[in-house]
Amino acid sequence: MKNLPVRIFLTNRAVLILLIILWAVPMRSWAQAVLTISGDVTKPITLQETEVKSMPHIEVTAKDHDGKEHRYAGVALVDLLKQAGTPLGGELRGKNLRKFVLVKGADEYEVLFALPELDPDFATQTILLADAVDGAPLVPGAGPYRVVVPEEKRPTRWVRNVKSIEVRLAL
Question: What CA–CA distance (Å, rounded) separates 19 from 15?
């Protein structure tokens, strides 16, 4: 029984220290979205939410799962791949045509795109890493990032909560 007050003191002290840490570190910094682009690229990158928001944004209109058209704003997926040193344009020939992009969501949902689907030298549509819809940030559960493929009939490759993008070479 003599040790009981000491244990309570240590527990209260530990709680006090934890509360001080929580007060001192803004909660928003823990919630910052991080996006990684890696794999068969020359410059793997990790982007913070503020970095993605500061990049040039474009808008596309597309029908979502609800069947209604919405305006999505974000960064063209190809622009992110360029930053990571993915071969595109004139470099997209031979072995590089076997490369593909695997987009992964936080819920482990994964979809794949052939590199030519993303390259404006090959494709007419712009596949977007969206961070806003109809002028507002994406809602929790869909964002902070969502891949939007505007010209597909069914939005099955629209990845929610995108966490990573990997470039790989098909064998």
Answer: 6
